[in-house]
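User: Hi! I'm working on a homework problem where we have to compare a predicted structure to a textbook description. Could you give me the structure for the chain below?
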Amino acid sequence: MPSAPVLALEQVSRSYDRGRVRALDHVDLMITHGERVAVIGPSGSGKSTLLHVLSGLDHTDSGVVRFCGRVPDGRDAWTRLRATHIGFVFQAFHLLPTLSALENVQVPMLGVIRDAGERRLRAQDLLARVGLTARAAHRPAELSSGEKQRVAIARALANRPDVLLCDEPTGNLDSANGRAIVDLLMELNRDNGMTVVTVTHNPDVAARSDRVYAMRDGRLAKVAEGGA
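Assistant: Happy to help. Predicted structure tokens:
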């Protein structure tokens, strides 16, 4: 197992609106391989910005972001990491409306897995894992919110990432679908050793995480350790 944390933030700050909105304020965070980390806090506290910075989808104003001990060198380096090592589950799903569930899951594999047949089989396996084999040919408009979220998770797993970053993965779901998503995330962590970092308002996610952090006004503080 690598000695360096899989992800680390060192005194990271990020502002918007010409500095008037401080989304991250000198944040330090270390996440080790195989951990389940939850980040809670009110809307607008900086939680989503934290995930975007951890994944290289957003840049920092100051501070350092490391992946496995190294600082990715620019946008292209982060793009390669997201293609092969970091999966991202968006709160708003971001599925392509003209593509089927099966086709949406294959999108991240383009340029990574050359063989079309292999891409298709991989997507079929992932949809089966999230219980959507029967919905593979359906487009997003034909899917429920819970089904869309499961497609989004399958897509995030397309290239076998080491880290899964989830932005409010149960936020649009009813309690039953929410529990199913949480169970799936815990299963991925348990069976694959995948590091899972989740921004959430869901107490079940927090209760089943190894560490829980709270964000307020761009600052991060640990509030609990443990988990089931």
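For your comparison, note the following. Helices lie at 47-54, 75-84, 101-106, 116-129, 145-156, 175-192, 203-207. The two ends are 22 Å apart (CA to CA). Good luck with the assignment!
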